[in-house]
Design goal:
The structure holds two protein chains of two kinds.
Chain A lengths: L5 E12 L8 E6 L16 H14 L3 E6 L6 H11 L4 E5 L5 E5 L9 E3 L7 H15 L15 H17 L9 E11 L1
Parallel strand pairs in A: 2-3, 2-4
Antiparallel strand pairs in A: 1-7, 3-7, 4-5, 5-6
Chain B lengths: L4 H7 L30 E4 L2 E5 L2 E2 L5 H10 L2 H9 L2 H9 L5 H8 L4 H8 L4 H11 L6 E5 L7 H14 L3 E5 L6 H12 L7 E5 L2 H9 L5 E6 L4 H6 L4 H13 L3 E5 L4 H4 L8 H14 L4 E3 L15 H14 L3 E3 L10 H12 L5 E7 L18 H11 L10 H21 L7 H9 L11 H14 L2 H10 L3 H16 L8 E2 L5 E2 L19 H8 L11
Parallel strand pairs in B: 4-5, 4-11, 5-6, 7-8, 8-9, 9-10
Antiparallel strand pairs in B: 1-2, 2-3, 12-13
Classes of the chains: A alpha/beta, B alpha/beta.
């Protein structure tokens, strides 16, 4: 984090059921059931406040509006990210789970397909999340960007798979079947540590 | 506390970087023998299962229902269910009880019953049983071929080298899914550049994977996943019926396929219904059988970090491979994912399938450096070839591959790169330069390859898939002068019409003869029977460049 001695706090307010806005200038950033609330950091301790700040900044740098939406009905990344892409006015979404696994999805794709997927959460830092935000917006413009460079650490699984499973179990316990997605208002506050 | 120097050193050993966990039965984090697993039972009325494993038919979920209706041989079920699980376990390790006799029982019992059978076996007994229950006589091996950049030229060269080393199947996936048609094309052309016929596949989202198979760009499919709880199954937008339907589509087009499942998947997906990993895997395997699929890729596969973290992890994984063989399924037995920092631990894991032999010991062995393995790294990679060869030599076991000479590797890699270059030219795809051919011929990894314009490649890949089939690839190779490769591609397409390679555990030998559980079954019944390494094969396994002999003295 850049602000030594300061801590970032993510405040989340739920607005209401998310409906299609028809705005082609938006990228829906879909978050999973425990994101930023029961779980507040990724599997390697990157605060969700930083993750959302970077994603939003990436989207905005390309001239698009980030729209944060929370999904309660599933913790399955492909599933809620594809739903979010169908909601998104640009047809593009970013989906993220609490542990940091993230995907760029498009409404016309099969649920289990994707534009870009980043399955190794322990490897992702703030910079990668910003690049993902930028690329999502570029897809929103209808262009085909160079994909965010693929990171691969064959040892990540050995170290983190069991932790990933337990975090995901905790997240999945909060799934509320059939509950509709809600729009979120996010605020990042800096407090002294 | 004043630290012990010995403990401090131990703490820094690679094994202590691995993730471990206590058992936690309430979330299904338990290998086998959970207090929440059901007791075996079956009740049949008028040819219909009305009770299975303690549940009445009206309480069945969709997986129970599918297994009860299609997955159990009801003709023998009532007698088979009466046999004590300990007796079945003993029959498994008794060389005097033939495989066929055991199959009559094990295909007529329930998931809870087969899980109980496993609880009587220790790891050596599981290995003994695996040696007998494997479906095909000769064990074989499968390779992963991928790279970080989805570089198709490198992929073709790596495919050719893998075929030369003796792998029977090669599997790729993508770093970026839109590259998929080129990855499949690279394996098809590269894999068939040598003398042997090799099966290839591209692991993707299921509709795309199917499409490439139907177009003749791949010759088998493996990543058709099934899960042991309904919640996880429906998360993947699936039901047993949709999986069965998908399986029948592959069959109707003459494409070999197997399902994939494995212990730990349901834990990782967060829905275990409190059942043990092995019981849920038993459900997956009965479901696979019920769908009429010839085989499975199991053995925890990419979820190995989960059973690997709890007590009895290796034992449960070996047990699930054995359960697949007990249902007469082809088994591609995992060993395809990094799960440990310890070399001792990773080879000990492999031995449990390498020593008895499975249909595919690894599914697969990374034929590229692990950092290029887009399946998130395999348990063994191309740096381990010589270790693997020496272990085969040390123990006189056949792990499905054999040493090759450097000049032969260079030759086939070059041919594969050139063949793909020609195919790209024929279809007017982004040019493959002489520099790229040269780099792929001698490369270790994707870092040795010139960068390609990925955006142009991805657009061209989409165009190629829309307009071309495997038959067009055969034609392109023929017109560009690669007649032998063209004939190989065409031969693989002809296989779909004859359908022989749809039989259980089918692979091709070096002369393009088919080996399967039907025409070359495993008939192990103790010493002197079953698969024995021939002298010819042995000489291939033991040849190495740096071995001393009388000639040196």
């Amino acid at each position: 984090m850049t602000n030594t001695g300061k801590k970032l706090i993510l405040e989340i307010k739920e607005l209401g059921v998310a409906k299609q806005s028809g705005d082609p200038g938006e990228i829906v950033i879909a978050v999973s059931p425990s994101f930023g609330v029961q779980q507040r950091q990724t599997i390697v301790g990157l605060p969700h406040a930083v993750v959302v700040r970077e994603l939003a900044a990436g989207v905005e740098e390309e001239g698009f509006k980030p729209r944060f939406v929370k999904y309660y009905n599933s913790s399955d990344l492909c599933s809620f990210a594809n739903e979010a892409a169908k909601l998104s006015g640009s047809g593009i979404s970013i989906g993220i789970q609490s542990k940091g696994t993230i995907i760029i999805h498009q409404r016309d794709l099969q649920q289990l397909d994707n534009l870009e997927i980043f399955p190794q959460a322990p490897l992702y830092d703030a910079e990668i999340y910003r690049q993902i935000g930028k690329n999502a917006a570029r897809y929103g413009k209808g262009i085909t960007p160079e994909p965010v460079p693929t990171l691969n650490d064959q040892m990540a699984l050995a170290k983190y798979q069991i932790k990933a499973a337990l975090l995901h179990i905790k997240e999945t316990e909060l799934v509320v079947p059939k509950k509709p997605p809600v729009d979120l208002e996010l605020q990042i506050k800096e407090v002294a540590e | 506390m004043k630290r012990s120097k010995r403990f401090e050193i131990l703490e820094k050993r690679p094994i202590n970087l691995d993730g471990f966990s206590e058992e936690w039965a309430e979330v299904g984090l338990i290998a086998m023998e959970s207090q929440y697993d059901p007791e075996p039972s079956i009740a049949i009325e008028n040819g219909i299962v009305v009770e299975m494993d303690g549940k009445r038919r009206e309480d069945f979920d969709s997986i129970d229902l599918f297994i009860a209706d299609y997955g159990i041989n009801l003709e023998h079920a009532e007698t088979a269910m009466k046999i004590d699980t300990l007796q079945i376990a003993r029959m498994l390790v008794d060389v005097n009880v033939p495989r066929e006799e055991i199959l009559r029982i094990t295909t007529a019992i329930t998931p809870a019953k087969i899980t109980k059978v496993m609880s009587h076996l220790n790891v050596v007994e599981i290995m003994m049983a695996q040696m007998k229950m494997r479906s095909r006589r000769r064990p074989s091996n499968q390779a992963h071929i991928t790279n970080l950049e989805d570089n198709p030229i490198l992929m073709a060269a790596d495919a050719a080298e893998a075929a030369l080393r003796g792998f029977s199947e090669i599997e790729t996936t993508t770093a970026v899914s839109r590259y998929a048609p080129f990855n499949a094309l690279a394996l098809l052309v590269g894999g068939l550049c040598g003398k042997r016929r090799i099966l290839s596949q591209c692991s993707l989202e299921e509709a795309m994977e199917l499409k490439m198979g139907m177009k003749g760009l791949t010759s088998y499919a493996e990543t058709v996943s099934v899960y042991g709880t309904e919640a996880v199954m429906t998360d993947g937008d699936d039901t047993p019926w949709s999986k069965g339907f998908l399986a029948s589509i592959y069959a109707s087009r003459g494409i070999k396929m197997r399902f994939t499942s494995g212990t730990g998947a349901e834990v990782l997906m967060g829905n275990t219904e409190k059942k043990s990993m092995l019981y849920l895997e038993a459900r997956c395997l009965f479901l696979t059988k019920a769908c009429g699929v010839q085989g499975t890729q199991n053995g925890s596969v990419s979820c190995i970090g989960i059973p690997g973290a709890v007590p009895g992890g290796f034992r449960v994984i070996a047990a699930e491979n054995l359960m697949a063989s007990m249902l007469n399924l082809e088994v591609a037995s995992g060993n395809d994912q990094t799960f440990t920092h310890s070399d001792m631990r990773r080879m000990s894991k492999v031995f449990m399938q390498l020593l008895p032999g499975t249909d595919f010991i690894c599914s697969g062995f990374s034929a590229v450096p692990n950092f290029d393995d887009m399946f998130a790294g395999s348990n063994t990679d191309c740096d381990d070839y010589d270790d693997w060869y020496v272990l085969q030599r040390d123990m006189r076991v056949d792990g499905g591959i054999h040493p090759i000479r450097e000049e032969d590797a260079v030759r086939v890699r070059n041919k594969a790169a050139k063949a793909l270059q020609a195919v790209f030219q024929y279809f007017d795809l982004p040019e493959i330069s002489e520099d790229e051919v040269e780099a792929a011929t001698y490369a270790y990894s994707s870092y040795d390859m010139p960068k390609r314009n990925m955006v142009e490649d991805m657009k061209a890949a989409e165009r190629f898939l829309a307009g071309s089939t495997g038959f067009d690839v055969a034609r392109a190779l023929w017109e560009k002068g690669f007649h032998d490769v063209s004939e190989n591609v065409l031969d693989m397409l002809k296989q779909r019409i004859t359908g022989d390679y749809l039989h259980t555990a089918a692979i091709f030998d070096e002369e393009f003869n088919l080996e399967s559980a039907l025409n070359d079954p495993n008939l192990y019944e103790g010493p002197g029977t079953g698969y024995r390494i021939s002298e010819e094969r042995w000489n291939k396994i033991i040849q190495k460049e740096n071995i001393l002999g009388p000639k040196d003295f």
